[in-house]
Amino acid sequence: MSAPDTLQSDPLIQSRALTIHRPGTSEPVLSHVDFRILPGEIVTVVGPNGSGKSSLIRALLGHMPLASGQVARRAGLRIGYVPQRVQLDTAIPMTVRRFLSLPTRVSDAQAEGALARTGVPGLGPRQLTQLSGGQFQRVLLARALLSDPHLLVLDEPTQGLDQPGIVAFYQLIEDVRRQTGAAVLMVSHDLLVVMRSSDRVVCLNGHVCCEGTPQHVSTAPEYRALFGAGAEGTLALYRHSHDHDHDLMPDASHDHAAGGAGAHVHGPGCGHDHHHSDKAAPAP
Ligand SMILES: Nc1ncnc2c1ncn2[C@@H]1O[C@H](COP(=O)(O)OP(=O)(O)OP(=O)(O)O)[C@@H](O)[C@H]1O
């Protein structure tokens, strides 16, 4: 974290030109990523496997060194983090209740309140190993909520859930946002649901390929063509940023800093065909 005085103070977290190298090399994993999340926003990061989504999350949280660039987190920011993987040692029995008190001890009432809020009341005495995938995700979310976070960070929270489970989980995230006012930063591959649940979507592929409101993206004919086709369309999202025609998005603001309705912005080094090449993305 460096030079927060040079960055805007309103966002909960903001990065400028965030660049990460593969450990021990000068090979970039992420290049010049400008990112921000505002209070109460739901922002989802999408991108193909290995595109740097988890690395971005870790760098924003300060868990990973930057090769260059800046990250600023608002002073006193409380973050509830649900990591991509939680290794359970099945040899060590652990109840949900005990898990909720790690690493910070909480009262029975707090634990039960968090479980109730995430739709799994009464699970406290159960062994973690006896939970379904959906129940386990809700317990992880409950634990993240115990710190009363300003920002929830979830890295692929619906991995392993079936489609109804995914939809229910995103509904829960929206409910939590409404009840607590917490902002939500997610990594997800569940693109169809992401499009319904996010205020803003950021598409990564080693850099920011594009970002904007899902409503805006979903009105593009390319998007409809791509997403009407189920899984095939889902994969095609990652191509859309490399073959679309920006003229089809007349209200696109191209304003990275604003990130407002219709914003559709290309990061530095994005090599795809720009039909508005006269408009370079401004520095945030
Ligand atoms: N600890 C590490 N050591 C070496 N390379 C790493 C390490 N962590 C990540 N990488 C590499 O950095 C790149 C980005 O990885 P990252 O996990 O951020 O991608 P991702 O978009 O989250 O992928 P996925 O969708 O598969 O979870 C990958 O090429 C990965 O191999």
Structure report:
The protein is α/β, with parallel strands linked by helices and about 280 residues long. Helices cover about 30% and strands about 20% of the residues. The chain is built from nine helices and nine strands. The protein has helices at about 55-60, 95-100, 110-115, 135-145, 165-180, 190-195, 215-220, 220-225, 230-245; strands at about 15-20, 30-35, 40-45, 70-75, 80, 150-155, 185, 200-205, 210. The strands form two sheets. The chain has a six-stranded mixed beta sheet with strand order 5-6-7-3-8-9, with helices on both faces. The chain has a three-stranded antiparallel beta sheet with strand order 2-1-4. The structure holds adenosine-5'-triphosphate.
